[in-house]
Amino acid sequence: MRSSQQHIIESVNDWLAASQQVWLCTILKTWGSSPRPIGAMLACNVQGELVGSLSGGCIEEDFLEQLKDGTLRARYEAEGGPFVIEYGVTEAEQARLKLPCGGQLHVLLESIEPSPANRAVFAELVQALQSHSTVSRRVDLATGALSVHSVDAGTISASSSLAMDCGDSKSEAVEVGDEVMVHRLSPVYRLLLLGAGDVARYVAEMAIALEYEVTLCDPRPNYLDHWSVNGVEISASLPDDLVRAKFSNPYSGIVALAHDPRVDDMALMEALKTDAFYVGAMGSERTSAARRERLPELGLSEDQIQALHAPIGFSIGSKTPAEIAIAVMAEITAVRYGLRQ
Fold first, then answer.
1. Are residues 237 and 301 in the same domain?
2. What is the pTM of this model?
3. Structural domain boundaries enclosing 20
4. Which of 126, 138, 145, 313 is deepest in the core (most CB within 10 A)?
């Protein structure tokens, strides 16, 4: 499983390795109702192959037309480096590009040559993302020169002489100064599901559709015999060992669905000590209260226990396994984007 962002970076890396020049577009700002968020990317090689998207298709078509007729190349040479294209500034353009009313996009366009330096940058980005590390891509807006930084190193600080202008969203993936653009790239998010059951099956299918890398763990004999979902890794390991090995970072979520303390509590006692962005356990109010009474006996502090989401999921009146899965993934999504603690 790869996120769309990782897929784009890997595609650019492959094209550069094949000595192909690449056009890379990155959304810097949005206003109103925009089709794609800040940080979304579109890449195109010299054969016109596209990966990623900026809109529902109309901006991509406009981009390809300007690429074919030489408009983009001529402007790039005139600018002497990366430049910003503003889409949807007028009502006529919004109608032509089928953007939502009031929607605007500012897109940074880069021409990336297959130089040894650029190939090295994208190879490093791919390696970082594949190893589940956070990394940022830094672009010199005057020259187009690229470099790789950790998120902390790549972020433009408030004390910097660069004037910040990051649009109207919170905690943006992109920061733009007078001289540089920093694009924070994150690895694919992972979910560890505990307990091979029907709810886990639906949660796994929805999580795969949302570009999570999913692992299902159940150490109980015979429980995994007839459980499978395409794209999901299956493990009979002890849950606490698996949490320590693969699910202890901010890009991981742990979801206890076994309804069996021997499985759920074993995972929770380790998960609540990690930096996982989400830790939740299925059960009623009564079951959840009983679990919270048990957890201190496993060496967890009150603050750690407070981080547990239980009962799991939004209250939407869900009854069936599929409905419960909808409630669970809705809550996980909200937590991931900072809309719920």
1. yes
2. 0.77
3. 4-185
4. 313
